[in-house]
Hints:
- This protein is an alpha/beta fold.
- 45% of the residues lie in helices and 18% in strands.
- The chain has a three-stranded parallel beta sheet.
- Helix 5 (124-137) crosses helix 6 (175-188).
- It is elongated.
- Mean pLDDT is 85; it is low at 205-211.
Amino acid sequence: AGVRKRGKIHEEVEKFSVVKTLQAIKDANVVIFVMDAREGVVDHDLNLLGFAIESGRALVIAINKWDGMTPSERDFVKVELQRRLFFVDYADIHFISALHGTGVGNLYASVQNSFKSAVTRWPTNRLTQILEDAVGEHAPPMVNNRRIKLRYAHLGGANPPIIVIHGNQIEKVPKSYVRYLENTYRRVLKLVGTPIRIEFKGGENPYEGNKNTLTDRQVNRKRRMMSHSKKADKKRRDKK
């Protein structure tokens, strides 16, 4: 599915195309986002990229019609991409010619790497160790003379990866620190092409409310021990 610029086709057809494109993005595991090098980064590109990120889709960016551009035009496009696509700097960018097939073959490696990053699962001890190292290197800020405490982390989901962090005063974690944690996990886990989500939960004991229920055998053993203890106490008193 694809979206064309306003004014090039009938409005009703364009609306249908947009709906189909949005649905295709939601259904995809990895989105290959194709942009026209000669038109640069336009608003509808940014809107669609934002939708892909909100949908949690892994992403590979392809800049098409690259072969027909001069060196100076290519340099200008690269500067614009770096300036306007800073929020998806984790996505691989390929410069291709769909007409001649130039650079298209390299897309598949990026698609595979992006999908792998999106669905890989890590154990709790691994994610918690990364959290502890991140906090040790750059601690959360103080709030009302109290330090925000982040205790442990575990995986809350995949495609996209969701990392759940437990701690205290988590509602006061600033956005800048959330981005720091996102970048840390992305760097250490070597994630490419996929958004990553950080969720916080309060520091309550995850085992709170679970009663320590004894088996019948344990109950009988406990009764025998208590009976033996009472008899021993009685003998000591009788000797006195």
